[in-house]
Amino acid sequence: MPYIPLTGPEKRGLLREIGVSSLDDLIRAIPSALRGPEMSLPEGMSEPEVQRLVRDLGALNTSGLDFLSFLGAGSYDHFIPSAVQEVISRQEFSTAYTPYQPEASQGTLQAIFEYQSLMAELTGLAASNASHYDGATSLAEAALVALRHTERPKILIARSVHPHHREVIRTYLAESTCRVEEFGFTAGGGFDRQSLAAKLDADTAGVIFQTPNFFGIVEDLAGIADQVHANKSLLILSGHPASFALFRSPGEWGADIAAGEGQPLGMPVSFGGPYLGYFVTTQALLRRMPGRIAGATEDADGKRAFCLTLQAREQHIRRERAGSNICSNQALCALAACAYMTFLGRQGMREVAELNLDRATYLREKIAGIKGFEVAVSQPIFNEFVVKSPVPFAQIEKKLAAERIFPGVALETYYPELRNRFLVCATETKTREDIDRFAEALAKC
Amino acid sequence: MLISRDDRLSFEKSNPGRRCVTMPKERLAKASVPAGLARRDPLLFPELAELDAIRHFINLSRKNFSVDTHFYPLGSCTMKYNPKINEWAARREKFAALHPLQKPETVQGMMRMLAELEDGLREITGMDRFTLQPAAGAHGELTGLMLVRAYHASRGDSKRMKVLVPDSSHGTNPATAALVGYRVIEVKSNARGRVDLESLKAVLDDHVACLMLTNPNTLGVFEENILEIARLVHEKGGLLYYDGANLNPLLGIARPGDMGFDIVHVNLHKTFSTPHGGGGPGAGPVGVKKHLVPFMPYPLVEKKGDGVQWAPKPQRSIGRVKSFHGNIGVLLRAYVYLKMIGRDGLLRVSEGAILNANYLREKLRTVFPVAVDEPCLHEFVLSLKQAAAKGVHAGDVGKRLLDFGFHAPTVHFPLVVSEALMIEPTETESRETMDLFIEAMKRIAFEIETEPAKVKNAPYTLPVRRPNDVLAARKPILTYRDLLREEAVAAEARVG
Amino acid sequence: MNFPENLRYTRTHEWIALTGNKGKVGVTEYAQKEISDVVFVELARKGHAVAQGKAASVVESVKAAFDIYAPLAGVISDFNQALESNPGLVNQDPYGAGWLFELEVTDPSALNTLMTAAQYAEFIQSGAGH
Q1: Residue in chain B lying closest to A74 (CA)
Q2: Which domain holds residue B38?
Q3: What angle do CA A431, A434, A437 make, to 5 degrees?
Q4: Residue A119: which domain range?
Q5: What is the pLDDT of residue C95?
Q6: Is C82 in the B-facing interface, judged by CB distances under 8 Å?
Q7: For chain C, does the N or the C end have fewer beta carbons within 10 angstroms?
Q8: How confident is the model at residue C128 (pLDDT cuts 50, 70, 90)?
């Protein structure tokens, strides 16, 4: 049997040492009525057979390498330095447990500390946790922090925030005494200031924006922090983290919490996970921050050392009084993000952001030149934008499949009123030839 | 010297102008950032050459214990071997390079994998349907309790505000129940570490929404009255939730579904061999019985003809609990493990886990007293109450074990045992490894008698000694900038 | 262990010093030792009304969090700002600089329901406080 060292003779030896004659003697507490269930499962396979099976299954998939993909919408195909994969493949990282024993986990702890430092730097805020499950759950935790901190019952969220993220927040708050309201966006796709003003009230605990928003538009949040803070609510910002290297960071906008999807920082699209949720906040809200946090301190000899800290907030201590039930982070993903940001470094991080803006802008210009297609060329974008097509999107998708291209994501799925509109994304992975080919194929639709 | 002495942060190794990767130079458009939207603050990221950066991370990795380098007898964590074929599979671009919003027709291999994994989990646990979305055990619990809430609400049964948890439960159980808005009521354990039936009856009424149970429980023993417990809870209209943290010793032997549980979560990073990653990512799929299917989160997979599709959203779904479809990379690893093990292997896994735990228990019970002195399943708990008289606590023994090259067991948990040391060897450890561990434990027991200070101040041979966690919590230093500020203050104090 | 005569005590190890209707509240030396190194105090909020025996503040050590209960019903009128930067005061000087909050007591006569120093010492001695 794979992975189990126990041989037949050894088994008998163990039983003898234990002082019983069979396994049955050890599981007497299990009622006999429950024992030996019928299970319809295939027998185990050998490793070569399983490798073959996985390859065969893989062959049934069309990946973003088989096709030219312009899919984004919350999951982005970015270049990942080869070194990142090497780092996260180190078994000393990947097969380690949660760093509850700091002396035996300085590698993981220092990496988390560096991840926290990098995220704080990128978002322009003071303190980061060690990560959440993903962007959606991180935003939901941010909403919970706002509700608890202000002791108010309402979360106000822009409709231009990722639909999945909005849904998860609703799931988390369903049937509680709290409620979620949304404010709209204008015809141009940016958030609607009037709609926000109408709904920002004395019940509002927190206001959530995404920038760049789900439509790819970089929001102008001038004056928003003042407006939200004057109302004694918290400002929560989400958005593509690499964009913060080029555009104003959440901290620069005056946000109290930055929470969102960290996948673009070195994680492959992987059909949706594992990713990581970043969560960064101000000094003032530090003690309200859920999740794991690494801190620097000294060891018994006065040497710098790292350990998990502020643990008295957490479930294993506070049990039912804890602010969140989370007891893990996406540590290996946080390591990937840490390595990604380190290998890109100061210059690389900015260049990646610039290249995204460049490729998306070029693609937008190309599509703007195609008869029948409409794009809003004056809107500030980062790496994706909305296209209005003269024909139903399904038709475009079908035609472009023949050209081995994934053209984008239909918006009608999430916004019934946005018919014939789709979201396209071009990251730094796209070349001039890729984009030209896409535009040519679209022109033929 | 084995471990690099260069303990600096990447930031402290930075040198302006250095870099690792280079990016394409060509620009295709004239794009600029509107002045009002541009970042103003400099980005103080480290600047390193690639060799220095790689060396930085590889040397960090060497300061870790891990399953691949050390034995981890961590109770309730099931630190079994993480097969390498899992990693091989997860790295395949035919899986890793799939976008989550691709049409199902273009990802049939992936969809089939998900459907088969669900089938496997259903068979193993005896449940009717699984969502693969939850990202961790605690996330599975949250999903499960939202299902409980939705189920009772759909019946207009709004008076159920209580969730029962045994006093030996994992901390996430009460935390989750409270998060979903329930009042948590603790149920006492009896002298043999099981739920005390009389205590249960005393708190069981028609205000109880659910009882959360780990079985075998955190003392490593099976709740032998489980069928009676299920009957009592169901009789009062409550639901039964199974915390799957300790499923490993039941594989192929007994199923939570047959015990009467309505909802279960399974920790794939425990029972199904996916690596812990230093604290995640994991996956905590949630299985339910038929009556709860209409409330399940979506998306769910469903076989249709030859293929696999996304199922229609269940009528009264609680909604999404996560973006997209779950921690797919973790699910794929668990699927590969299931294929390798198969039906025949499940019993070998549980048998190995039980035999190993009992072997350790038998050898250690004369060294330190066992909390519940009877055959255990996957784990057992030692009580170091007597050592505490010498001023040595369970945590100290854990620290001293590190010097012997063993990770500490779970310490000071469960809370019902004073000075608890919770030990779970798993089926993948050999007898030779366990014998070395037993030797170390005996040696430490001797040290407690002869030189307790040595145990109290351990470890001595690791990259650092015990970190001052009081200082860390009183004065949180959470980033490089905090560190710079702290150092500036210290420098000023010296000058002053 | 030191339990000053001029204070009254609760079974949950708080002390209160009442002057008129103002009562200063802290934890006892016994509690301070049980808690071990205090790393953070979640301060009571000014103007907050609390019933007798209800949680008014939280004291954290590295490994635990302890609710601090109001010895008498009242409204929180002040809290010890110094604990924000120096929570260790609770350990160093539990009856002085380590006080937690001040209470405007609704019914000062209820003080009689609390233990005297002698009664509290006996309570601790008997092991009932565990």
Answers
A1: B323
A2: 10-61
A3: 145
A4: 82-339
A5: 97
A6: no
A7: C
A8: low
